[in-house]
Amino acid sequence: MMGGPWLHRRGVITGALAIGAAPLVSRTSLAQTVDLATTPVARGLQHPWGLAFLPDGRFLVTERPGRLRLISRDGVVGPPLSGTPAVDATGQGGLLGIALSPSFARDRLVFLSFAEPRGGSTNGTAVFRGRLSASGTALEDGRTIWRQDPPISSRLHFGSRLVFDRTGHLFVTTGERFSQMDQSQNGTNTLGKLVRITAEGAPAGDAGASRGWNPAIHAIGLRNVQGAALHPETGRLWISNHGPRGGDGLYVARAGANYGWPLISWGTHYDGRPVNGGLRERADLVQPLVHWTPSIAPAGIAFYTGDLMPAFRGNLFVTALAAQTLVRVVLDGETVVRQERLLGDVGQRFRDVQQGPDGALYLLTDSAEGAVLRLAPRGA
Questions:
Q1: Would the pLDDT of 29 be above 90?
Q2: Is 157 one of the annotated active-site residues of the chain?
């Protein structure tokens, strides 16, 4: 249910973000400030993962244990929808990303990514499609339209954001499942890849045919992409990728690109060993626009285009799990100009961020008592 303001913070700066690698960014605070308030919109969600607004202002939220909830404009959380897929909710798995059809007002199609049980101890990222019922209580005519291959026995690194591009094709981000990190360089499978499919699930990768890649692959060499958003002007997909201990990266997705994992990294393995002997750059592998070392564990990302907070227009917002912050990234084209951390005193892991129809930013907190928060100027 709706609640009173959770915190008030004058100004957009709660501490500059220190980064550990080129390109360096300015640590100068912005002169323009906003008097912000963060207000709980809905509570009582168990590890909410993805959020999508309906045309009428209501919104759908996925919960990692396997539930999909419809939440009213005033924050009333509905019962779990029927017709959702069975998920493997062990470790980092479960019900994950969500996207609405670009023609949702006509076809009411909802797309979900999830960790699918594949038999024995194996599982894999998959994409499910169903039609939201007129009552808003079920997904009808549901079916799984795409499956990551091969299935792996792992609890980790499923990806998994869903974003439609301007042609109506669907980007699916995947992870390399941790135990199979070298496979992110193998173009014959879809571990650690950026995948592009049609709304029916057919391969639509526009990079792999000449390389002998799986026909759904758009780009390779990724570790665990949990953030993806289209640039509002260029239409290009931007992604955030988890590194190990450091080396989280922000990238522009390009067809045929190799993002380097595990051949290069600005981070180290969790036991402190260097990645591939400590190699950080190679001419044929893409460098991040910026990386975060130590790791912030970036999750959902969103560009801000609204009128409610004009000082933020054109900025990219990155949720962070380990750092428990919302990172504001100021851009000049594809150059990171500066960064600031917001909401560091909330004490929450932030899993997703979306711009709402009212121009506010809406965030999901990742916990057993998760919430939807609204970030806006005080009184707006």
A1: no
A2: yes
